[in-house]
Each structure stands twice: as structure tokens, then as C-alpha cells.
Amino acid sequence: MSFFFDPFVTFGSPSWLSTLITSALIVPFLLSEPAASATGVTSDTSDLSALLSIRAHLNPFTSLSSWDSHNSSIPFCQWPGVTCGSRKNPGRVTALNLANLGLTGSVSSDIGNLTFLRSLNLSFNNLQGQLPPELGRLSHLELLVLSQNSLEGRIPGTLANCSSLWRISLGSNRLAGEIPAELGALPKLQILSLHYNDIGGRIPASLGNLSSITHIDLVGNRLAGTIPPSLGRLQSLVHISVTRNSLTGAIPVSIFNMSSLSYLYVGYNQLSGTLPPDMGNTLVSLEVLQAFGNILEGPLPISLPNASMLRQIVLPYNRLSGPLPPDIGKLRYLSSLNLRANELEARKSEDWEFFTSLANCSNLQTLDLEYNKLEGPLPSTIVNLSTQLTWLGLGGNEVHGSIPEGIGRFIHLERLHLDQMALTGHVPAAVGKLRNLHVLSLDDNQLSGVLPSAVGNLTQLENLYLNGNGLQGEIPKSFGNLRQLTVCDLSFNKLEGRIPVELTDLTSLTRYLNLSRNLLTGPLPAEVGSFKNLEALDISKNRLSGEIPSTIGECQVLQYLYLQGNHLEGSIPDSLSSLTGIQVLDLSCNNLSGHIPLSFERLEHVRFLNISFNDLQGQVPNEGVFRNANVYSVTGNNKLCGGIRALHLQPCPGHLPGKDGSPAVRSLVSIVITVTLFVLSLAAASYLLHRQRTRKCMPVNVVFFTVSWTARGRANVTHRWAP
Ligand SMILES: *[C@@H]1O[C@H](CO)[C@@H](O)[C@H](O)[C@H]1NC(C)=O
Ligand SMILES: *[C@@H]1O[C@H](CO)[C@@H](O)[C@H](O)[C@H]1NC(C)=O
Ligand SMILES: *[C@@H]1O[C@H](CO)[C@@H](O)[C@H](O)[C@H]1NC(C)=O
Ligand SMILES: *[C@@H]1O[C@H](CO)[C@@H](O)[C@H](O)[C@H]1NC(C)=O
Ligand SMILES: *[C@@H]1O[C@H](CO)[C@@H](O)[C@H](O)[C@H]1NC(C)=O
Ligand SMILES: *[C@@H]1O[C@H](CO)[C@@H](O)[C@H](O)[C@H]1NC(C)=O
Ligand SMILES: *[C@@H]1O[C@H](CO)[C@@H](O)[C@H](O)[C@H]1NC(C)=O
Ligand SMILES: *[C@@H]1O[C@H](CO)[C@@H](O)[C@H](O)[C@H]1NC(C)=O
Ligand SMILES: *[C@@H]1O[C@H](CO)[C@@H](O)[C@H](O)[C@H]1NC(C)=O
Ligand SMILES: *[C@@H]1O[C@H](CO)[C@@H](O)[C@H](O)[C@H]1NC(C)=O
Ligand SMILES: *[C@@H]1O[C@H](CO)[C@@H](O)[C@H](O)[C@H]1NC(C)=O
């Protein structure tokens, strides 16, 4: 199965971390205060006029209404958000905190006149315009926090003059240009946070001069080129994130040599090369390794289990190959091992030792090994994995064997993916113990036996994929309890009996219900109208009988309805034409009789209407949808007449073209025509009947017709008709 659920969001931007660390470290920096005498400037009226200029650029300033020069009863040092020096520099502004006040407008260049400013926090507003280069005059500035605004333009290189800067936070703006190389000269900088901007160019090599830096956060920009090897010189660096950029080349070896580094986030770039074999011995502090969605190749480093602090190994969607380190279970803090969609191998039984050793990771919560090249029997030690597991994925590997009853131990599991393998045996009833399960995919295996009714105990289930197996017996009535279900795929099995009416209790179904290619009998329950939010319903290729219930017209959201290849009879309900969003309607290969509802002309979104190979009679409508012969087929209904010329059907009686002439001649002509028609249609009927038997009800003019599901949800339907 293919789905693109993004498994990384939970570990995505680590900005919470920087916030945490900053709030812990910030205070001591604001304690010491520079002396005014050192600068020679004393005038406090200049700070007043700078503040007034700042206010004048902000809009609306209701939140700053008490910033008022004409009211001398409040000195500006007591204005909200303004902090002045206390001992050495009374009357000089040292901190300006106007964060989260809903301010719009821009940052006045006169801010550069507040030369005693040490902390500037204007974050969480909607400030626009550019950052004034005059910020470079603030030589005492320690904190520059302007994140979460709409600031544009370049980051001024003059910031390099603020040699006291300790933190630069400009994340979540619209800053463009490049990272000024001059910033590498800031000797005290500890935090550089520029995430989610539009910054391009390369990462300047000069950042390797930031000898105090602990955090570099460049997530979500347009940075290109390689990661500069000079960053490996940063001996205090704890955290580097360059996720979601366009970086290329190999991760420099020097980066893997940093004993201080705890967090390495490089996902969603085009980084290539291999991970060095000894990285687990050199990155001794590493806790999180995230490099998903790159083109990394080669084996997972044999030494990785030596990086004893590791909690997360998140490397899906790369080209890693070879076997996994057999002693990976040494990582006692490991909580997430995500290696989905690589080329990792297990051929011999020794190659599976890693799996057994993972049983030692008692904090393991995510284990995703889907879509690799793991081969062999499903290890029996699967039941010894941590019961803390919330995500277990092994699907898309060449694994055989049966699902052990012990699977019921994983009571915290939210997602179980054992699809697209060669699993045999039954679906164990113990699956019903996994009460927290949201997604169960066991599709495309060779599972057999009766579908256990205990599956109906999984009341949190949202997606159920059991299709493409050999499951037998009836659909358990207990499935009606799955009140969170949005997708249910039981297609391509050997399920028999009636469609339980309880299934229509699943009003939560939104994306699709697929029961096609089974052996289901009996009627389509009249309660089918309760699928009020369902987009796609496929019950094709079963043995359903009876009439199509007219209540189906109540499925107002339905876009795809497949009922072909059953034994449905009676007439096509007129109510189908109230499915105004319907795009694909396939009723072919049934025993439907009566007329084509004239109201079908109104189905304006139809891209594919197939009513061929039934027993329909009378006139084919020729307006609306029926004007375009490319979107519908009525073949194999030998009693139909009329319709547009392109169908080449006989004109309907009573619609004969009238010609001049005497009544006698006219009636003679019409008798001749009628007899000819009768003979012709007999011939046509026997021909079609013959063909129908030999061709087994295949729509003749469909070349191909594919449905693919994006994100395991919305259908992409492509229908091509023969020219
Ligand atoms: C800021 O300082 C500059 C240069 O010293 C001066 O020209 C300007 O008038 C000052 N701005 C305000 C608002 O005082
Ligand atoms: C000055 O501000 C104080 C406090 O907000 C207010 O009570 C007073 O009326 C204001 N005076 C003038 C002249 O606006
Ligand atoms: C800036 O202000 C915001 C909003 O009040 C606050 O959450 C944040 O901690 C401040 N940042 C610093 C570095 O002081
Ligand atoms: C930055 O410092 C340099 C050299 O000390 C000086 O020439 C330049 O004018 C300064 N820029 C600002 C904006 O203060
Ligand atoms: C800063 O880094 C660059 C490039 O790595 C280097 O050429 C330069 O000499 C460094 N400057 C200082 C002052 O260390
Ligand atoms: C790694 O660090 C060691 C010692 O700290 C040093 O000798 C070695 O050159 C470094 N290797 C790289 C590739 O930077
Ligand atoms: C892991 O660390 C141990 C002890 O430091 C060392 O002996 C061993 O060689 C390392 N393993 C690998 C694969 O480098
Ligand atoms: C896992 O634990 C078992 C028993 O506690 C031990 O024998 C085994 O060596 C451990 N495996 C690893 C890879 O740490
Ligand atoms: C694995 O689990 C089974 C069943 O719970 C248990 O009998 C067995 O001792 C476990 N094996 C290890 C190595 O813990
Ligand atoms: C499912 O629920 C029923 C009724 O609550 C209970 O009898 C049965 O044991 C449950 N089955 C499983 C496998 O949990
Ligand atoms: C339903 O399942 C069948 C068989 O698995 C598949 O061919 C068909 O495309 C599915 N229907 C839809 C609407 O996806």
C-alpha cells in the first residue's frame, strides 16, 4: 500500500527546545549593565524621541496608548514594555518588550538611537518591512528577538557590530537574501535561529567562527550548496537543524566528530554519501539523528549502538542498504527507530539478530521498518518487543509466517502495518485487544480463515485494510461498532453471506468502503443511505441480488459508486441523479431493466458513467451528460434506442424522420422500416447475446481504467475510452 502520512511532524521543528534553553539561560545576561560614561552619551531626550519615532511607525497603537509625550505624568521609563537602566544609566532604555501585542507597521530605523538597549523582543506581532541596518549601532544588544512577524528583505550585515549579541531569533518571517557572512564574527552568539524564512544562498563557512554557539536553527529556508565543514569546529554546538532546505553533497565528516552535538536534524534535503562507520564512537552525546528524505546510502554505521544516548534514529526515505547492526538493542534509551523505505537487507537468520536485540529497548515506541528488503520468517521475538510500542511497521518486506497471538500484548499500539508481505494463517482474535489501534493494515498477504469478530472491539480504529487476502466467512456484525472508521477495505477476499445491516451504522466512513471482489450475496441494504459522508463505495464483483435501493440517493457526498458485476435487477432508481457530485457511476454487468432515468442528463460532474451490459430498454437520453459519448457507455443493452448519433443506435419508434408523401405511402414506408428494424434488431440481439456469452460482460470500449488512492484516501480516477 502506498500512503504518505508524514511520520516526522511530531519530531519536526525543535524550536521548543531553544525556547526552553533560552529561558533558562537568559537571566544572568541581563544583570550586568554597561556604564553610560563609557559611551559618552547621556541625553535621555534622545531615547524619548527614538521611542516616539518607534511608536509612530507602529500601527495600531491602542496597545501603546500610554506612550504619550504630552502626558508628562508618566515618564517614558514607565511606559509599558520599556525598561530603563537602574543604577549606572537611569533614564536610558535597556529593554524593549513589545511582544505579542498585535502590532503592525514597521521597525523604525531610529531604534538604532537606543544605544543602551540590551534586549529587544518584538516577537509574535505582524510587523512588516525591512530590518533597519541601524540595528548595528546597538553595541550592547544581547537579545534580538523578532520571530513570528512578516518582516522582509535581507538580514543586515551590520548586526555583526552588535558584538554583545547572545541570541538572534528571526524565525517565521519572510526574510530573504542570504545569511550575512559577517555574522560569523559574533563572539558571544549562542543561538542563531532563522527557521521558516525565505533565505537562500549557501550556509557561510564563517559560521564556523561562532565559538560560543550552541544552537543553529535554519529549518525551512531555501539554503543550497553543501554544509560547510567548518561547522565541525564548533565545540559548544549542541543542536543543529537544517531540515527542509535544498542542501546537497555529503554531510561533512567533521560534523560526525562533534562530541558536544546532541541533536542533528538534516531531513528533507538532497544530502548524499554515507554515514561514517565510526560515527557512534565520535558523536558521543548524540540523542537525536534525523535525516529523513535524503539520498543517503551505504549501511547503518556498525558503531551506532555505541552512541549510548541515542533516543531517535529517524532515517526513512533514503537509500541505506545492508544489514542492521545486530546489537542495536544496546541503545537503552531508544524510543524511535524509523528506517522506512530504504534498501536495508536481512537474508540470513543472523541478519535478524537486530530485531531480537530490540527487545532490550524498553522505551521503544516507534519501530518502522516498512518497505525494505528484509526477508525471512516473521521473528517469533516480535512479541518480546516493548509493550510501550505505539507504531509497529514491517509491511512491504518479504516476510512470511503467521501473526502470533502474542500481538495482543501491545496494548498501546496505534498503528500496526503488516501489509504487503506473505503472511499466512488466521487473523488472531487477540488483535481485538489492541484497543488503541487507529490503523490496522494487514492487506495483500495470504491470510485465510474467518475474520474474527473481535476486530469489532477496536473502537478507535480509523483505517482498516484487510483487502487482498483469502479471508472467508461473513463480515462480522460487530464491525458496526467501529464508529471512528473512515476507511474500510475488505475487497479481494472470499467473504460471503449478506452485507450486515450493522455496517451501515458506520456513518463515520468518509473516504471509502470497498467490499468488491468477494462472494457477497443478498441485497444491498436499504440503510445504505446512512453513508452521508462517504466519497467512494465499491461493492462491485460480488453476487448481490435484488434492486438498488432508492435510498442510495441520500449519500450526498458520493463521488464514486461501483456496483458493476453483480446480479442486481429492477430499474435504475431515479434518486441516483440526486448524487450531484458523482464522478464515476458503474452499474454495468447486472440485470437492470427499465429505462435510463432521464434525470441522469443532470449529472454534470460525471466523468465515467457505465450502464452497459444490462437489460435496459427505451430511449437513451441525448441531452446534458449524454451529449458527450466519451463519458458514458450503454453497450450491451439490446433494447435501447435513440440517443446521440455517435451511439449508432436505432431511432426510437415514434421518432422516425417524417417525409412528405401521401398517408398511404407514409404508412407503407413505415411498415417496411418497422419490419426491417425488427429483422435487424433480431439479428443484432442474437449477435450481442452471443458476444455477451463469449466475452463475459466486459465493457467493449474501455481501454483502461485505473483508480489510485493518494494518501490512502481521495481517489484519483483515470478513465480512458477508446477513440
Ligand atoms: C537618531 O540619531 C540620529 C543620528 O544621531 C539623528 O540624526 C536622529 O535625529 C535621531 N533620531 C531621533 C528620532 O531622535
Ligand atoms: C495622563 O495619563 C494618566 C494615566 O493614564 C491619565 O490619568 C491622565 O488623564 C493623562 N493625562 C493627560 C493630560 O492625558
Ligand atoms: C519574547 O516575548 C515572547 C512573548 O511574550 C516570549 O514568549 C518570549 O519568551 C520572549 N523571548 C525572550 C527571548 O525573552
Ligand atoms: C560597524 O562597525 C564598523 C567598524 O567598526 C563601522 O565602520 C561601521 O560604521 C559600523 N556600522 C554601524 C551600522 O554601526
Ligand atoms: C572566519 O571564518 C572564515 C572561514 O572559515 C575564515 O577565513 C576567517 O579567517 C575566520 N575569521 C576569524 C576572525 O576567525
Ligand atoms: C576529529 O577529532 C579529532 C580529535 O578531536 C581530530 O584529531 C580529527 O582530526 C577530527 N577529524 C575530523 C575529520 O575532523
Ligand atoms: C563500541 O565501543 C567499544 C568500547 O568503547 C569498542 O570496543 C568497540 O569497538 C565499539 N564498537 C564499534 C563497532 O566501533
Ligand atoms: C539483551 O538483554 C539480554 C538479557 O537481558 C542479554 O543477554 C542480551 O545480550 C542483550 N542484548 C543486547 C543487544 O544488549
Ligand atoms: C519472549 O516472550 C516469550 C513470551 O512472552 C517468553 O516466553 C520468552 O521468554 C521471551 N524471550 C525473551 C528472550 O525475553
Ligand atoms: C471483545 O469484546 C467482547 C465483548 O466486550 C469480549 O467478550 C471479547 O473478549 C473481546 N475480545 C477481545 C479479543 O478483546
Ligand atoms: C476496491 O478493491 C479492488 C480490489 O482490491 C480494486 O481493484 C478497486 O480499485 C478498489 N476500488 C476502489 C474504488 O478503490
UniProtKB/TrEMBL annotation:
E.C. designation(s): 2.7.11.1
CC annotations in GO: plasma membrane
At the top of the EC hierarchy, this enzyme's class is transferase
Which GO molecular function entries does the Swiss-Prot or TrEMBL record give? ATP binding; protein serine/threonine kinase activity
Q: Which Pfam families match?
A: LRR_1, LRR_14, LRR_8, LRRNT_2
- Tell me the ranges covered by the Disease resistance R13L4/SHOC-2-like LRR domain, including all copies: 509-616
For membrane topology, the record states:
Single-pass membrane protein
Q: Where is the Leucine-rich repeat-containing N-terminal plant-type domain?
A: 45-84
Catalyses which reaction?
L-threonyl-[protein] + ATP = O-phospho-L-threonyl-[protein] + ADP + H(+); L-seryl-[protein] + ATP = O-phospho-L-seryl-[protein] + ADP + H(+)
Among SUPFAM superfamilies, the record links this protein to:
L domain-like, RNI-like
- Name this protein carries in UniProt: non-specific serine/threonine protein kinase
Organism of origin: Musa balbisiana (Banana)
